[in-house]
Amino acid sequence: MTSYLRSWLTGAPTTATPDIPSFLRVSPPASDDGEDTETEQDDNSVPAFPALNSAQRAAPSQPPRILSDSALMPPPPPPSLATRTPGVSSRSSAKPSSSSLLAPAATTQRPLKPTKKRDKVALAPGHSPLDWAALKSSGEDLRGVDTLMRIPPSVLKQHRSKSDAWSAFNGKVYNITPYLAFHPGGERELMRVAGRDGTELFAATHAWVNADFMLDSCLVGFLISEPSPSSDSS
Ligand code: HEM
């Protein structure tokens, strides 16, 4: 039985020995001449795998390649623990060539000073960002002007009170009065740019905020450079 299984595994020709029961014989049976296409009744013989005439069996079997020591990948350099001072990172230690396998030095550095605190402002009920989104798409007039204008800095400067505050961001002038109570940074901060170009301060505070989208319904015009006195007379 063992010799039969070995020959089955290695692919040696199967010669049905008398002691092998017929249900263990692999197909095609010895008598199979390929012409008889009729299936035999109750033929439960297991097909040979790989097939007896497969390329896999035909390929000459190669002995497994054994790597010699010199063909193997060299081991990593040993960490130079002996030169390491406890509490001092390998990066800041006198020996910069120490191994990179050491633990990162994150905990040995003093934390940086926290950046300037941004104060949270409690918005009045009904003044959440969602409320602003609803108001600006409600169709209510938030501009306070009939047509879009070309606005020089001198005109912009005249609109710097809470009830009439304009500010320019990226060349566009907006009426920021309706937004004051909705600004998450508070009215006071927003009023710092009333009557002037707030592009720089805006970008320094929160460049990720899309002012053009948030204030589109408050657009009053476009910032232009101050007209020279000579062009005034014409
Ligand atoms: C009209 C233009 C502006 C719009 C549409 C606007 C919008 C916003 C929005 C959406 C936030 C919340 C951002 C966030 O939590 O990530 C915010 C926060 C803030 N804004 Fe503005 N902002 C404007 C102008 C300004 C200006 C000119 C300043 C002033 C200096 C300013 C100061 C702040 C501050 C300090 C916060 C922080 C609030 C917090 O930490 O939650 N904003 N602003």
TrEMBL record:
UniProt lineage: Eukaryota, Fungi, Dikarya, Basidiomycota, Agaricomycotina
Native source organism of the sequence: Mycena rosella (Pink bonnet)
Protein name, as recorded: Cytochrome b5-like heme/steroid binding domain-containing protein
Ranges annotated as biased composition (Low complexity): 89-106
Region (Disordered) residue spans: 1-121
UniProt-listed SUPFAM superfamilies: Cytochrome b5-like heme/steroid binding domain
Similarity comment: Belongs to the cytochrome b5 family.
GO molecular function: cytochrome-b5 reductase activity, acting on NAD(P)H; heme binding; metal ion binding
One Pfam family here: Cyt-b5
Acidic residues compositional bias, start-end: 32-43
UniProt key word Ligase: no
InterPro entries: Cyt_B5-like_heme/steroid-bd, Cyt_B5-like_heme/steroid_sf, Cyt_B5_heme-BS, Cytochrome_b5/Flavoprotein_Rdt
